[in-house]
Every structure is written in C-alpha cells, then in structure tokens.
C-alpha cells in the first residue's frame, strides 16, 4: 500500500506547469481511512514543534487533523449544552443541496452527522438539478428569516445554469457560516475590520497551526492556489497573522523557487502529488488542503485519496505535514460547527 503511493509520487509528471491546469474542487469520496502513516496519539498541548529540527524522516510530525477536529467537536458540544441550558436556544444549520452529485451528497451527509454529534440542529433541503435559481433564492430568503436557523450553507458547486454569485450574495451575512459573502471576504481583507465569519477550510488550516504551536508571525508563508473559497482567504488570514505571504498560481513563473522559501506552505490546488520534496525548505510546515482521488487497483474502492503534496517525500524534508485524509478535511467540518455555534451566540447575545 505504502509503496504504491510512493510510486505514484515518482510517476507523476515532473513539469510544474502540467500540474497547474485548472480543475474543479477536489472530489470527496468514501469514508476516512488512515492507512499510510502512523498517527501520534494526540496533538501536542504545548509548543513542542521545532521548525529548526534537523530534517530526518523520523523528525517530521504528522499533524493529526482528525484528532484535533474531534477535540474541537467536544468543546463545541459542551458549549452547545451550556447555551441550551442557559437560554434554551439550540443552534441550527440549514444546508441547501441542489442536484444529485454523489460527492456533494456525501459531504452534506457528513455535515449532518457532525451537527448531530455536537447537538446542533440541522435542516436540509435537497432540490432537483433542474430547479430554478429563483427557487434556491426563495429557500435562502426563508432561512434568512427563520429564527431557528443560525447558519445557512449552499453546497457548492451549484448546477451550471445558476449564478453562484447571485446565490451566495443572497445569504444574510449574519448567517453566512461559510464566510463566502463578499462583505465577509472584504472585511477579512481589510485591516481593522472584522468579518462575521471566516471560511471554514482556511480557518481550519490556521487552527491546526495554532494548536500545534507553529508560530506564524514574521514567517514566510506560501499559499499555492488562489480560489475564492480556499487559497485567497487562506492568504488573507496568514497576512492577518503577520506572516509575509506569497500566492503561487497557474501563471506564476518559477513557482518551485518561491515555494522553497516558505516556512509555512498551504497548498489548495487539487492536483495529486504536485508538490515534490525538492520544492520544500528543510523544516517547513506543510498544510495540504487537496483531497484528490487517484486510481489504486489494490484498494477495494479502486481509488485512494492523496493530497497536493507528495507525502512520502515531504515527510522527509518538512518538520510537520498534514496527511490526506485525516488532515484538513475533518477540520473544515469542525470549523463549520464552530461558525454555526458562534452565529447562534451572536444572534442571542450569549457569551
Ligand atoms: N458551501 C460549501 N462549503 C464547503 O465547505 C464545501 C462545499 N461547499 N463543497 C465541497 C467542499 C469540500 N469540503 C470538504 C469537507 C470535509 C472533508 C473531509 O472531512 N474529508 C475527510 C474524509 C476523506 C475521505 O476519506 O473521504 C478527510 O480529509 O479526512 C472534505 C471536503 C467542504 N466543501
């Protein structure tokens, strides 16, 4: 198993530009399985990470997103009951799913399960693929007005006949738990302004760094990818944390040279095993957002999930790396729950 993924890293095309061809969001498939690496029992509680650690295979840490996410879900569950007991309010998340994409259905199911696990109410509407934009807008409008709903999530991607911008703009910023409303992104970009919500995946990346004691201030950070939902907000967040940030994308010349200068790398491009060991500065910390299915005849599903970063190479050079699966993915859902809880607290002035 481990050798097949190793082979995959080496059989990947070596040209950088070939990897940067545009692609849709990584496709989510199947249940979590941690097969390729040993996971430490729990994340360090204090600042144990040494960025200057000599780069040997044994010294690299696996950043265990699955276990951090579990810890965060427990904290959220405690807050949800405290709020329910104190003011009788249960946070509610409404999820709007349009069409029958298999990966989207899986994501929505996982979000619903996660809500149940912490005591958050979840409402779900599944509209047919050929629904009109107006029908979606009507649902958004009724959830905007519904006092039992504190967060609204429109599962992306939407069918191509809908205007994503119109739809996302319709979610009231008070309930925009995805943090995708332009007003929330705009505030994220401006110094001295505070967004009501920060997008879940980038927020999860920063939370992982924080809980593993990786300091960001004054560090060189490189974000690979410039999507609205991950790359761009991740770069804005790192900058707010006082990193010096570069964004590498499909039109960047010499991406490897820029990436090699990074103390912290966040990769969100959706290209399997694109970032090679030789692109990584010894001791760097790597947050791998990509969740890419690749063929794997030895797996019962016929595929396995790999990140944007060649894990077996990275683990030898970096001081810490997030695995795929079990890294950023579970954190995204934990941050969605946190945003929903915080929204209910804000709406009900509960501290
Ligand atoms: N409005 C909207 N908000 C989103 O946040 C959103 C979206 N649309 N569309 C799709 C993407 C993708 N996404 C993931 C969430 C969790 C995992 C996750 O938990 N993955 C696990 C399981 C992987 C597996 O084994 O299948 C892991 O990485 O360990 C992955 C991907 C949220 N998205």
Automatic annotation (TrEMBL):
Keywords: Hydrolase, Multifunctional enzyme, NADP, One-carbon metabolism, Oxidoreductase, Photorespiration
Catalytic function, reaction form: (6R)-5,10-methenyltetrahydrofolate + H2O = (6R)-10-formyltetrahydrofolate + H(+); (6R)-5,10-methylene-5,6,7,8-tetrahydrofolate + NADP(+) = (6R)-5,10-methenyltetrahydrofolate + NADPH
Biological or metabolic pathway of the protein: One-carbon metabolism; tetrahydrofolate interconversion
One example of a Gene Ontology biological process annotation: photorespiration
Domain Tetrahydrofolate dehydrogenase/cyclohydrolase NAD(P)-binding: 199-346
GO cellular component term, pick one: cytosol
Gene Ontology terms, MF aspect: methenyltetrahydrofolate cyclohydrolase activity; methylenetetrahydrofolate dehydrogenase (NADP+) activity
Pfam families: THF_DHG_CYH (PF00763), THF_DHG_CYH_C (PF02882)
PROSITE patterns on file: THF_DHG_CYH_1, THF_DHG_CYH_2
Annotated InterPro entries: Aminoacid_DH-like_N_sf, NAD(P)-bd_dom_sf, THF_DH/CycHdrlase, THF_DH/CycHdrlase_cat_dom, THF_DH/CycHdrlase_CS, THF_DH/CycHdrlase_NAD-bd_dom
Subunit structure: Homodimer.
Listed HAMAP family: THF_DHG_CYH (MF_01576)
Protein's name according to its UniProt entry: Bifunctional protein FolD 4, chloroplastic
Organism: Cicer arietinum
